[in-house]
Amino acid sequence: MSLTSVGVIERKNTITVDGFSSAKTLKGAINEMARLIAKKFDEEEGKALTVKTNDEAEDLLTIGNYSGDEFGIELQEFEYDPKLHYYIMVRIVKGGE
Hints:
Elements: E1 3-10, E2 14-21, H1 26-40, H2 43-49, H3 54-60, E3 86-93
Antiparallel strand pairs: 1-2, 2-3
Helix pairs in contact: 1-2
């Protein structure tokens, strides 16, 4: 499993990371993103995003549940691939200086 078409937008106060996951479950997709964030951006944020159960994964959807349309993300630019099951986006708010 891995994230593909990963995009990163870094601003003064936030980092937005998105990509497509080949994971078969929402839990797997979220944990893929958590590993990427821990490795490339912030280990503690990655740990905080990690889920142990499918119920925890579902609960995360209720936190800031936005669609790609609200951010002007055009999913049509990607060719359909049946192996990519989830589009996932996370916004990290940077700590104060």
